[in-house]
């Protein structure tokens, strides 16, 4: 019987994931919903409470050794931990990269002015995960850039 190679053994180990604490995952989802609701209402008091809920969320995730999913992590500012809500706590725009001539989405926190850039495939994620108040739209800077075929 042939022995498995080291590469096969490492892929088998990486395919297995840690069992996640279901209670912690439920609590993290609840904290995220409350933080987004508080941030969406506007006002400094609501934003401060939202940041406290976000800190509790990430602390709980760290202590329970549960990694929050990427969609949840991208919904918070990495610097100040404010939940990003389009038009209220975040500015979202779509632009074309000069070097690669590809579309990217840029999410800017209104509190600390830090930004995150996401690839074109994730621009749909930006529209879905960071919905703003009714009537808000994604700002596209593509009309000013001529298309090169």
From TrEMBL:
Q: What GO CC annotations are associated with the protein? A: nucleolar ribonuclease P complex
Top-level taxon of the source organism: Eukaryota
Q: Does the keyword Zinc apply?
A: yes
Q: Which stretches does UniProt call biased (Low complexity)?
A: 7-18
Q: Name one GO biological process term.
A: tRNA processing
Record keywords, A-Z: Metal-binding, tRNA processing, Zinc
Q: Pfam families of this UniProt entry?
A: Rpr2
Recorded family membership: Belongs to the eukaryotic/archaeal RNase P protein component 4 family.
Segment Disordered: which positions? 1-23
Q: Kindly list the GO molecular function terms attached to this UniProt entry.
A: metal ion binding
Protein name (Swiss-Prot/TrEMBL): Uncharacterized protein
**What species does this protein belong to?**
Macrostomum lignano
Q: Gene3D superfamilies, alphabetically?
A: 6.20.50.20
């Amino acid at each position: 019987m042939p022995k498995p190679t080291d590469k096969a053994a490492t892929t088998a180990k990486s395919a297995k994931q840690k069992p996640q604490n279901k209670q912690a995952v439920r609590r993290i989802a609840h904290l995220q919903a409350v933080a987004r609701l508080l941030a969406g209402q506007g006002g400094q008091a609501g934003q401060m409470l939202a940041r406290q809920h976000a800190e509790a969320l990430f602390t709980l995730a760290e202590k329970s050794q549960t990694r929050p999913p990427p969609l949840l992590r991208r919904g918070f500012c990495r610097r100040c931990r404010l939940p990003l809500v389009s038009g209220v706590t975040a500015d979202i725009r779509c632009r074309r990269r000069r070097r690669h001539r590809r579309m990217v989405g840029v999410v800017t926190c209104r509190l600390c002015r830090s930004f995150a850039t996401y690839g074109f495939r994730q621009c749909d994620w930006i529209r879905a995960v960071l919905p703003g108040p009714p009537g808000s739209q994604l700002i596209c800077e593509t009309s000013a850039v001529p298309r090169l075929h």
